[in-house]
Automatic annotation (TrEMBL):
Predominant place of localization: membrane
Protein localization: Cell membrane
Provenance organism: Paenibacillus gallinarum
Annotated membrane topology: Multi-pass membrane protein
Every ABC transporter domain range: 354-585
Location of the ABC transmembrane type-1 domain: 28-312
Keyword Nucleotide-binding belongs to the record: yes
Membrane-crossing segments per the record: 26-51, 63-82, 143-164, 170-192, 253-271, 283-301
Record's keyword terms, sorted: ATP-binding, Membrane, Nucleotide-binding, Transmembrane, Transmembrane helix
Descriptive protein name: Thiol reductant ABC exporter subunit CydC
């Protein structure tokens, strides 16, 4: 458990403790509710036991039976209501925690999106992380909270029993502790290797399948699809065998633990019997002591599931942390260490001057320059397009502008300050495949600005022209993405990402081929919307297409890292090469 709680440092805070601290009050309330619910169940059985015993005697007064009947009903009713309240509260709290985690993940990756994209495919990374983060809800719901409640119930139960008989309480405490806590730990360690192997195989085969689906056409074209299917089947069968073994093991373990828990009930009844014989306990309470053990053991034995699942949660946390570190590391590797003098946040966000002076960049351990001698001035509101063949240096130039990598020579300045120093406040980014999370439409847009209210969300939705579509969804902006996701086309997904950018309200927007994969008409409409909505912002747009270039202030052609041709659309039209390219691209668009 310490491994879950402790692994943190100032730079990499834990993915569990900050949220537990932040919602400590709610967590405490959930634990109290779960204790009350277990208490009601125990009290119900206890009074039911007393009632049965009393009813077997000849009561002097009908009230002797009637009071326990009312109590049994009250506790029975209370258990259901409190348990329901506990579930509602715990799910609502966990959803709040998950929301915070998603925003944190987005904010970690978003500033480095240009550099991270090089080594890790962003959409897939975010997908994986969303899955892992979702799994963490079970860490709270099925592990941390039940474990806390069980430990408390265990402690309170033993202390209460100790008030009658210390020796028996200690003996029973050891036995129950062994059943509820020690046996699951032993079982976990003895099967750890196999569990790990099963998880590894499963994720490997998932990766293989994803790869195969992505490259389906190539498999079919090469006539090797049968080969792949057979190999995949073999992997699946091997992991099914391990899974079968583990399920049988878990089933036997549960059977063993629950059988032994029967012993606890027998011990309690026998102890209450001898206690009554010695005249220390009224005989009617014998059954009560026997029955109270049922609900308490049931709650305690749930810890075994929680303990068995701990490694799974640990791996999820490790993967998330790893990704967080990778994202920072990839960016740091090429990053410039900003000196304190350079971190001068400037206030005038409405007028930002971006300037590249003789900028050059060489990737570590390479001889070739990826970008060389680039000069560029982008005053607020200027629109610049960067074109060039694959490998000509466009993305590297975009990263230099964003400040996520440091120029090897020359400088990138924003209002005279290094871009990197103000990176998080200056740039928005729109790429080829914006990721939509499995949460509501509103939350997907709000990701870029967690404080935005519903009114602002509606406003940006209207601006990007999605209001009719979103209003037609069953719950409008609160419709879950899972329900709505399939209804969004590529262009509409880009519009949602554009709504995020609008909400972010940053002076410079970097566009990395956001229209790739769209049909020409949708592409043209999207470009018009982007240029219209972002008219006050500076734009740096990496593209392979010449559609929409008429509206740009400057077009830059990159070749082998150098700027080979530049100018406005009108001036470049005088250049035969540009005119040919434009006509070719425009002709294909008209087709
Ligand atoms: N991380 C890296 N390490 C070493 N070389 C790199 C790295 N990233 C890019 N390069 C090289 O730098 C040059 C410019 O690459 P860059 O990605 O900027 O080109 P691009 O025009 O954006 O290409 P594309 O259109 O395919 O994205 C290429 O020769 C590329 O191989």
């Amino acid at each position: 458990m310490r491994r879950f709680i402790q692994k943190k440092s100032k730079e990499h805070p834990s993915w569990v403790t900050p949220y537990v601290k932040e919602y400590a009050g709610l967590f405490l309330l959930i634990i109290i509710l779960s204790l009350l619910s277990a208490g009601c169940a125990a009290a119900m059985m206890y009074t039911a036991g007393a009632l049965i015993s009393k009813a077997a005697l000849r009561p002097e007064n009908i009230l002797m039976i009637y009071v326990p009947i009312v109590l049994v009903r009250t506790f029975g009713f209370g258990k259901g209501v409190i348990q329901y309240a506990e579930r509602l509260l715990s799910h609502s709290t966990i959803l709040k925690v998950l929301g915070r985690m998603r925003v944190r993940m987005y904010q970690t990756i978003e500033p480095h999106v240009l550099t991270v994209r090089r080594s890790i495919s962003t959409g897939r990374v975010l997908g994986l992380l969303a899955e892992d983060i979702e799994r963490l809800q079970n860490l709270y719901l099925r592990a941390l909270l039940p474990l806390c409640s069980s430990i408390l119930i265990f402690g309170v139960g033993i202390v209460a029993l100790g008030m009658y008989d210390v020796k028996f309480a200690l003996l029973l405490g050891c036995f129950v502790g062994f059943l509820a806590f020690i046996i699951p730990c032993i079982a976990l360690f003895s099967t750890m290797k196999r569990r790990q192997e099963w998880k590894d195989r499963r994720s490997r085969s998932y990766q293989e399948l994803t790869d195969a689906v992505l490259g389906l056409t190539d498999w079919v074209m090469s006539g090797q699809s049968r080969l792949f299917i057979e190999k995949f089947k073999r992997t699946q069968q091997a992991s099914a065998r391990i899974n079968h073994y583990l399920r049988r093991y878990d089933w036997r373990l549960n059977w063993f633990v629950y059988s032994l828990s029967g012993l606890v009930i027998i011990c309690m009844t026998l102890w209450a019997g001898t206690f009554a014989e010695a005249g220390k306990l009224d005989v009617v309470w014998i059954a009560a002591f026997g029955l109270i053990a049922f609900p308490l053991m049931d709650t305690l034995l749930r810890t075994s599931n929680a303990i068995m699942e701990l490694p799974e949660y640990r791996r999820s946390i490790e993967r998330i942390k790893q990704m967080e570190q990778d994202a920072n590391m990839v960016a740091q590797e090429m990053k410039y260490q900003v000196t304190a003098d350079e971190i001068k946040p400037f206030d005038n966000m409405a007028s930002v001057m971006l300037e590249l002076q003789e900028v050059g960049f060489r990737y570590p351990d390479t001889k070739e320059w990826a970008v060389r001698q680039v000069n560029l001035q982008i005053p607020q509101g200027k629109k610049v397009a960067i074109l060039g063949r694959s490998g000509s240096g466009k993305s590297t130039l975009l990263q230099l502008i964003q400040g996520s990598i440091l120029s090897s020579e020359g400088s990138v300045l924003i209002n005279g300050v290094t871009a990197q120093a103000n990176q998080n406040r200056l740039f928005s980014f729109l790429n080829q495949s914006p990721y939509l999370f499995d949460t509501s439409v509103a939350n997907n847009i709000r990701l870029a600005c967690p404080d935005a209210d519903d009114k602002q969300i509606h406003q940006v939705i209207q601006m990007v022209g999605l209001d009719r579509l979103i209003d037609s969804l069953p719950q409008g902006i609160h419709t879950s993405m899972q329900e709505a996701g399939s209804r969004f086309s590529g262009g509409e997904r880009q519009r949602i990402a554009l709504a995020r950018v609008l909400l972010q309200d940053r002076p410079i927007v970097l566009l990395d081929e956001p229209t790739v994969g769209l049909d020409p008409i949708t592409e043209k409409k999207l470009i018009d919307t982007i240029l219209d909505l972002l008219k006050d912002r500076s734009l740096v747009w990496v593209t392979h297409h010449l559609t929409g270039l008429e509206q740009m202030d400057e077009i830059i052609f990159m070749e082998d890292g150098f700027v080979k041709m530049r100018g406005s659309h009108q001036t470049l039209m005088a250049n035969e090469r540009y005119r040919n390219l434009y006509e070719l691209d425009h002709f294909s668009y008209l087709l």
